[in-house]
Amino acid sequence: MFRFIFSTIVISVAILASAVSHGQAQDTSEGKDIFRFDTFGDEQLWTDTLRLQEAIRNVSPRTALSVGLKVDADALPPSLINAIKAGQVNLDDPAVTIQLLKLNAVIGVIGRVVGANNNLMSIGITCALCHSTVDNSVAPGIGSRLDGWANRTLNVGAIIALSPAITPANKAPFQSWGPGKFDARLQSFNGTTIVPLNSPTVPVVIPSIFGLQGVNFETFTGDGPISYWNNYVGVTQMGGHGSFSDTRIGISITQRPDQVVPKLPALLQYQLSLQTPPPPAGSFEMAAARRGQDVFNGPGRCATCHKPPLFTDVNGPDPNTPVLHSPFEIGTDPRYASRSATRMYRTTPLRALWQHPPYFHDGSAATLPAVVDHYDRVLMLGLNNRQKRDLVEYLKTL
């Protein structure tokens, strides 16, 4: 037990040292505001092109919650919180949704509500839509924010399919994604037009973005440093009014003034401040986890690629070049990688695995035992059942 606890302390100290060595600022308030509330001018997609404000005017809170939208309890007056807890708020009334938008309480959705009739004029989204959830302290889907936690109940495709600008025949790809998934390689937006990129759709799980200090490469395919992906998503997927260019994937978008790129440093600083949540008390068996650590470092060969303290080997000798792996080397579906700039996969840093099933980029492993079984089979490890169980217990501690 002491060796296990000591190992955990060493890892924590190493991560803290990494944060200090990167000169992490203490004040991340600017980045927090960008993450939570800045749409980067993406109303040009969600309002002008998709016309989602027309659909949301008729969406009840119950429907919004059913597709995974979350409500920030800290933005609600105490009287409203008490009324929700007492069941005195009509969650089937679309007018309540408008009021929540007026309070800026729908996480990741910014609505402009004007006039005595509370007319919803525009809709934009922020980073928090996909990468924040709530603690459900008031009701399911309503509570205090948990920034950096993937919203695995958010059905982005179903929300997009509400658009009156999308014909019924063109809704199928979006409706096929399901909760917690998004296909960032299906199409892009250049400021005026939605441009098809690939077909058919290949959605991947929305990742959590905490615990990234020192990782450098955020995406499943390691296309670039974290701000590269923020720029890609902010412009081409969120529809922000900015510029992005990468000849490797044939995308070049220029919009002036750029409302995305100047904000990337502060946004990155806030992202790097988001800490990995510890496993809940009693969520793993200590003695088994201690044995599982030996499996991880020994016969399981996990540490060969998931190298402590960051539990990834993506950072190679050249800080600008990630270490990546062929899909066939690790036995994963190559389709998503084939649409990326690298056509390979990064070793995912292991962070709060207890918190975010399913696993792998495509969510093909529903549980941690399924992950262990996958690698035992692909890498021909020959682990026995006890070793597998112990390894799972150790993974729950990370």
Short description:
By secondary structure, the chain is an alpha+beta fold. Helix content is 35%, strand content 10%.
Strand content: 5-15%
| Poorly predicted runs of 5 or more residues | 1-25
How far apart the termini lie comes to 16 Å
From N to C, what is the helix and strand string?
A: HHHHHEHHEEHEEEHHEEEEHEEHHHHHH
* Shape category: globular
Oligomer: single chain
Strand order of the largest sheet: 1-5
Give the helix proportion (percent range): 25-40%
Q: Which class do the helix and strand fractions yield?
A: alpha+beta
Cα-based radius of gyration, to the nearest Å: 22 Å
In total, the number of domains comes to 2
Question: How would a crystallographer describe the biggest sheet?
Answer: 2 strands, parallel
Rounded mean pLDDT score: 93
Q: What is the number of E strands?
A: 12
Helix count? 17
Please describe the topology of this protein:
Layout: H1 2-21, H2 29-37, H3 43-46, H4 52-56, H5 61-66, E1 71-72, H6 78-85, H7 94-102, E2 109-114, E3 119-125, H8 128-131, E4 132-134, E5 142-143, E6 145-147, H9 156-160, H10 172-175, E7 181-182, E8 187-189, E9 194-196, E10 204-205, H11 226-237, E11 244-246, E12 251-253, H12 264-273, H13 286-297, H14 327-330, H15 335-338, H16 368-378, H17 385-395
Parallel strand pairs: 1-5
Antiparallel strand pairs: 2-3, 4-6, 7-10, 8-9, 11-12
Helix pairs in contact: 2-12, 11-12, 13-17, 16-17
